[in-house]
Design goal:
14 helices; Aspartate Aminotransferase, domain 2; 7-stranded mixed sheet; alpha/beta; 5-stranded mixed sheet; Aspartate Aminotransferase, domain 1; globular
Length: about 400
């Protein structure tokens, strides 16, 4: 994939283009640092330029006429392609071991594009009950107006997902770990049967990121991310990602991007490129501190249950080790005292964990109490912790102090 941009004098200016000259077996961090950024002009910038433009110009009428031909080096309009965005998409496709990637303006833009690419009027979707709650709302409250129905499976047993399939099922949508409750699904068992029946499987990989999990290698067909989370990593950008390998799905997803118009802004793409560069090293710190806080909570007398698949005591731990390479900083737990007062008391005593939705940035966050809606199937007084990049010992001490009577 080439990315030349021609100036009016017809001299090619190629500051960056997605790279195909890295060895096939380089490590994750090397891909984050270099992939998509080779072959720039001598003396060019060390950072990818931001092509903050709506429209791209052509050197002559013939070039414009051939702009959509296979292999055309030209960009036309940022809604359907931008050089800055192309660098990001090349990196993420390589990290997810995908053939293609589209970056969109939010996680929900990516999720809806992936779902819409697979369904039509009269179609049926099978989805995990404990998925990201806006995804559930989209399937439960929005798509029925277009004749699309969904069966939500309140289980982690692959047999229950397979039993929910109908003749009109066009998509299975899953997460692992599940949102909030952090349960692990046997992804390979679900995808094997889905493939036998010709049903695509979409997977939300926001929790683990490609650093710790590659769903396409587990048999999934589409991978989505809220890039707002770990990929961005700094709580300053809202974006989404759809990746895959199948060419027909690529065309369908592109149709959603092009016609619905949820295109990412070039500056947001640039912020994500910056985030990708440090993705691996950040995830290692999130895992280290997240496990330290989870293990502390697991042995504390005030804590009823910790939901973290990285704990040896977790019911999904063995399966997680077969599907994943590690764990992030997001998990949940429950106090023995199940009440609004106890939940609020713990949250309000925290000094390093701020109250806020989302996660994936540098700062630690906490949510609990009435955040969990009635239709989300979450335990009423479950507390969600996102462990950020602060010093591990400081975070453990902060939680210890908040639990003191």
């Amino acid at each position: 994939m080439n990315l030349p941009i021609h100036e009016p004098d017809n001299e090619p200016f190629i500051p960056r283009r997605p790279s195909d000259d890295l060895p096939s077996q380089v490590g994750f961090e090397t891909i984050c640092t270099h992939f998509g950024e080779a072959s720039h002009v001598v003396g060019g910038p060390a950072a990818v330029p931001i092509y903050q433009a709506s429209t791209f110009l052509f050197p002559d009428a013939e070039a414009f006429e051939k702009r959509k031909a296979a292999g055309s080096p030209y960009y036309e309009y940022t809604r359907v392609g931008n050089p800055t965005t192309a660098v990001l998409e090349a990196k993420l496709a390589r990290l997810e071991q995908a053939e293609w990637c589209f970056c969109l303006s939010s996680g929900m833009a990516a999720i809806s594009a992936a779902i819409n690419a697979c369904v039509h009027a009269g179609a049926h979707v099978v989805c995990a009950e404990r998925c990201y709650w806006p995804t559930a709302r989209y399937l439960r409250n929005y798509l029925p107006r277009f004749g699309v129905t969904t069966t939500f499976v309140n289980s982690i047993d692959p047999a229950d997902y397979i039993a929910a399939i109908r003749p009109e099922t066009k998509l299975i949508y899953i997460e692992s770990p599940t949102s909030g409750t952090m349960e692990i699904l046997d992804v390979r068992s679900i995808t094997a049967e889905a493939r036998r029946r010709g049903i695509p499987v979409a997977f939300d990989n926001s929790w683990a990121s490609p650093f710790y999990q590659t769903p396409l290698e587990l048999g999934c067909d589409l991978v989505v991310h809220s890039a707002t989370k770990y990929i961005g990593g700094h709580s300053d950008v809202v974006a989404g990602v759809v990746c895959g390998r199948d060419e027909q799905l690529r065309r369908r997803v592109f149709r959603e991007v092009e016609l619905v118009g949820g295109t990412i802004d070039p500056f947001a793409a640039w912020l994500l490129i910056r985030g990708v560069r440090t993705l691996g090293v950040r995830l290692e710190q999130h895992q280290r501190s997240g496990l330290a806080v989870a293990r502390f909570l697991a042995q504390h007398p005030s804590v009823r249950r910790v939901r973290h698949p990285g704990l040896e005591s977790d019911a999904g731990h063995a399966l997680a080790l077969r599907q994943m390479r590690g764990f992030g900083g997001l998990f949940s737990f429950e106090l023995h005292e199940q009440s609004r007062e106890a939940t609020h008391r713990f949250i309000d005593r925290l000094k390093l964990f701020s109250i806020g939705v989302s996660w994936g940035g540098h700062e630690s966050l906490v949510l609990g109490g009435n955040f969990w809606s009635q239709d989300s199937q979450m335990p009423a007084w479950m507390i969600r912790l996102y462990v950020g990049l602060e010093t591990t010992e400081d975070l453990v001490e902060d939680v210890r102090m908040a639990l003191e009577k």
